[in-house]
Amino acid sequence: MTSQPSPRRGRGRRPAAEVREGVLRAAAGLLLAEGVKAVTFDRVAAAAGSSKVTLYKWWPSAGALAAEAYFTHSEQRLEFPDTGDLRADLTAQMRAFVRLLTEDRTGPVIAGLIGVAQTDPELSAAFSRHYSGPRRALALATFEKARARGELRDDLDLRILVDQLWGACYHRLLIPDEPLTEEFAVALVDNALDGALARRPGDPDEAPAA
Amino acid sequence: MTSQPSPRRGRGRRPAAEVREGVLRAAAGLLLAEGVKAVTFDRVAAAAGSSKVTLYKWWPSAGALAAEAYFTHSEQRLEFPDTGDLRADLTAQMRAFVRLLTEDRTGPVIAGLIGVAQTDPELSAAFSRHYSGPRRALALATFEKARARGELRDDLDLRILVDQLWGACYHRLLIPDEPLTEEFAVALVDNALDGALARRPGDPDEAPAA
DNA sequence: AGTCATATGAACTCGCTGTCCATATAAAGG
DNA sequence: CCTTTATATGGACAGCGAGTTCATATGACT
């Protein structure tokens, strides 16, 4: 009788894990359905059937709660293909990333989280720790391997390469002056690998501008 | 007494231009002093000594008001050096951009505006129209000229080059996993122009991956 | 001067924030 | 099994901002 987990569970203390789980589930629901702005302490508490006070105890800001809810419930695969052909692997990776960012729900959610992060340090930290950080590290590791294989220049700052590629995609996501497409992803990789210069730098005589 | 333009100007209609000017000035003050979050209709109206109703009539959202205030009062120079040496010009431009983004006030303000824009379509449109759009067009024009001079590859999508360069800077501004420095700007330009590959593509025979 | 357009203050509803209680109950200890 | 302690709960609260409505005062135009 008393061990039944549900029927009239209303008032007093409930196990912390159970409460947290319910709150995160409710927050994720609101986040995916209505966007970041809908994730307020008030609405999450109401949707989860919990008390606002409980939420304030565990999460420093609504943004941090939204971030944790998203990262918890979206189990993204963090994998890089590594076939030994950097251009092919990178192209596949960037296409997948663009596909993720242009999905109906995912794109706006990620953009919204980054947006709120600009005025919510807690969310910013959570985003770096759970999302952008690991991905950056993974990309870097892939580049290290490619460089060890001799595919990349030795004098390159690989971190900058990450900004050139992922940053370009985020740029089109966050400041949508140009469309974010898979063709963009493909051309982006080529640009980054081959460079923009017309004169191939292999030539000893740099053609003078005349 | 009654013709004095200021002392007891309280009640009735005032010239639209004068009101708008005061509102924008107040909004810019709040924006620079306390950030985007401080630019609310309530506070701007109070600071400008105007009525909230007036603000609602002219600006669709607090974000749009903040954007207009910023663009109006920050008269940025929209110039590109064009000495005929693309690498030097671009390096100068990116250094200046990074310097702008890392200024005490400007950086957070721009980041905040982009952040709010993720959930404020009006602000997003204003940002594109007044800020990112013109800058993108200017950069593109510079690249066109460089390409006409033969400095850039003919098959290049120049718009992507813009994303690689400016997008990388915005990336470090908005998702601060790595520092945004002038050294970064310099290396970024080199990366974009020279490419990341170790094999110089100048060779007529493209080395097959085997 | 008279008329019209409109900026104004005040008041209002609503939602969200952040914090205060007293209470009910789960978990731990005897 | 009973007691104690920790804590989740509902309710209430003040404060702020969004967004609207109203009557009024006054600049601008005829």
TrEMBL record, chains A, B:
InterPro entries found in the cross-reference section: Homeodomain-like_sf, HTH-type_TetR-like_transc_reg, HTH_TetR, Tet_transcr_reg_TetR-rel_C_sf, TetR_C
HTH tetR-type domain segment(s): 17-77
Alphabetized PROSITE patterns for the sequence: HTH_TETR_2
Ion transport keyword on record: no
Keywords carried by this UniProt record: DNA-binding, Transcription, Transcription regulation
Any Pfam family the entry gives: TetR_C_11
Protein name: TetR family transcriptional regulator
Origin organism lineage: Bacteria, Bacillati, Actinomycetota, Actinomycetes, Micromonosporales
